[in-house]
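Technical appendix A lists one of the benchmark inputs used to test multi-chain prediction within the project. The record comprises two sequence entries:
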Amino acid sequence: MGLLLVNTIGFAAETNQVNEGKEIMKDNKISLGAEIKLMAPVWVIGSYDKAGKANMMTAAWVGICCSKPPCVSIALRKATYTYGNIMERKAFTVNIPSKNYVKEADYFGLVSGRDVDKLSATGLTPVKGEKVDAPYLKEFPVAVECKLINTVEVGLHTMFIGEIMDVKADKSMVGENNSLLPCMLLFNSTTRDYYGIGEQLGKAFSAGREIINKKK
Amino acid sequence: MGLLLVNTIGFAAETNQVNEGKEIMKDNKISLGAEIKLMAPVWVIGSYDKAGKANMMTAAWVGICCSKPPCVSIALRKATYTYGNIMERKAFTVNIPSKNYVKEADYFGLVSGRDVDKLSATGLTPVKGEKVDAPYLKEFPVAVECKLINTVEVGLHTMFIGEIMDVKADKSMVGENNSLLPCMLLFNSTTRDYYGIGEQLGKAFSAGREIINKKK
């Protein structure tokens, strides 16, 4: 693949942005290097420590990873307090903040449960999990109880694979057929901003049928 | 944890929603069972088949999974065409659709590359990866080239862990310090809707400092 090293001044003049000495691909894309640039969900992970103190930490290197059984994966550094908690209790919860809890979600990622009682500091309420040995947050609209079923080492991080044992949601979040209304915070790691959910843009397993039909 | 089986008629009257016979927890949450209810990012995965035909498939059971080295994980069923492609080529790309490509992103998840040439059907352009043996999409604003470094079996799905070798983005997406402007589609699996990104809600590693300062 051919590259074109762009004249910095000419490029800056054209885009009004600072990308000095960056390579521009033939297809007009800029190569940004081997870095994480993608946006990610903001999940707050609940766990108990050895003494039974509830802790919450914020994680964004997370995702759903299986439909059957329903599983999620969360990647944590060994240095986190939550790492030891999950190793010990074999359980965690995933708590989804609404846009009313940006401050608390950020706080849970700023300090360690080793040093402070984050629940007490935020005034939020840990509820003992019904299915697993981990606490969920009363005030957040959605909570997922997970049983640890596997760990995978990936560089600096350990992925905890948790099987979903139950999803709990505020009544106001639950729609027809037990669907959930949109609820999520997003993390832009490159600008360090949180975002909410935007407009509905189309129906899944439906919008693309136009292309199938055109082909016929 | 105590449960309260709610009178269906009373509850339906109160919320105008159908949650017949569902249990309501003491903390006012509804238990929805062991199911995937969370929203997920929409990533389009690029790969080459044995014959060198470019293919794209849509995946939502995905996420970032390590900072160092930078890695992503995507979970696919063995039945997908992409599964065999990645096993063979040890590489894939992650392509992030803008809201202009909802139709195409949905289409890529509706049909199999075993049966059709999805690139030809959509008129989108595969570009040969620069760092790995997989194609990315010229028209989508962000592409990530990934080298397969591990696979993990989780129930029905196989997680492919890919090390990020490069991120490529349209010039118009790149801000100061090579940050990326917000770009993502979200998938609500319970209502089968796609959503865009909403408003900026706060600064990460900053919004929560208010709680730290209050404590002092």
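Helices of chain B lie at 8-15, 81-89, 102-110, 118-122, 209-215. Chain B is about 20% helix and 45% strand. Comparable benchmark entries are summarised in Table A2.
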